[in-house]
Structures are given as structure tokens and as C-alpha cells.
Amino acid sequence: QVQLVESGGDLVKPGGSLRLSCTASGFSLSGYYMTWIRQAPGKGLEWVSFITNVNIYTNYADSVKGRFTLSRDNVRNSLYLEMSGLRADDTAVYYCARVMGANYFDLWGLGTLVTVSS
Amino acid sequence: SYVLTQPPSVSVAPGEAATMTCGGNNIGSKRVHWYQKKPGRAPVLVMYYDGDRPSGIPDRFSGSNSGSTATLTISRVEAGDEADYYCQVWDGSADYVVFGGGTKLTVL
Asked: So what's the pLDDT on residue B35?
């Protein structure tokens, strides 16, 4: 079954760190760009970061640049989002998604909840 | 940075057509994609490349894009269509993904 499964979400204190994982099954991650998108409680969708699949290139939303790092392990068919310097406004459900064509997202995971609170 | 503007809400009766707009500077020159988001569920792609439907999306869903406005139309709206709908583009000048603020579709 083709799917993405996120994990690693947790309650963390402001200033803390967390690593989110996204594992693909039913297809090879190596063939695709991948992305993370988040939704804060009561808010809309917000793009976080994307990573290419060759000549690895990443980019980040201004709101997370310098604090988040996206990487991939094509052997483990997984994606990792390292988050540091977490703030209350990073509280959200984080989704990983597969990127297609002109940068649209055809496959999404169910999400993992990150809560930043003291 | 590029901005997409969506009306916060749209309400329609069952069986009627719902039209949701997405405004942006010369958005007609970009490829617009649309997602349906229901509470507690992952977003679902319902339209890509302005007007192409993924497999499994009913043909009641259609899309267009011209000038400064992209449009997602759902004809013969059903109760199950009630959700938030987000438009999305790629801002190639900054290697950025941009989402609109979302439109809440209410089926009366």
C-alpha cells in the first residue's frame, strides 16, 4: 500500500529540539522530491520545507530557516526534520507529502502533532 | 513574497454549485493546485495544474485559472464536500511553496 507515515511528534518545552520522521511504503522515496507542511491549531496550511532527490537541495520557509533541517535517507526510505529552538508558534500538526510535477502534493501522511509549551 | 487570497467562507445548499476563488498577482501565469482538508484528516489533492482531477475525485470538481483569479467549482454539492479548501502555487522566484489562507465550504 502506497503511504507515508510520520512519527516523532511530542510535547517539548520552548527552546527544545525534536526530530520528526516520515517513512514511505509502497514506493521508493528516492524518485521524488519531498516536503513538510504544517497546520497550527485553527490555522491554515503552511509550507515548511522541501528537499530534492538528487544533488540534494533544501529550502525552508522564513519562519523556520536556521532552526529546522530537512534530510533524507533513501536506503531507509525515510525523511527527517530536525527542529531546534522550538517556539510556541511551531505548535502544529506536521505532514510530510510527496511532490509531483509542478510542485503539487499528491500523497500525504496522517500527520504528527508537535506541541511546544512550558 | 507571493500572496494568495481566498475568501474565508462559502455557503451553498445541497445540489447547488460552490465556487471558490484564489486571487494572486498574474496567477494565470502559474499552475494552481487545490486541496480539501477535513478536521482530523490529511489534506487531499482535488485539482492540479489548474484543472486536472486526480483519479478518484468526482467530475463534479472542476478548476480554471486566468488573469488574477483561479477558481475551484464543485457542482451538485453534497454534504460530504463540506471542508476547508486551499489553493497552492509554486513561487519559482524564491523556490517557495505558497498556500492561500483557505476557504471553509459549508453545506447548508
From this structure: 98
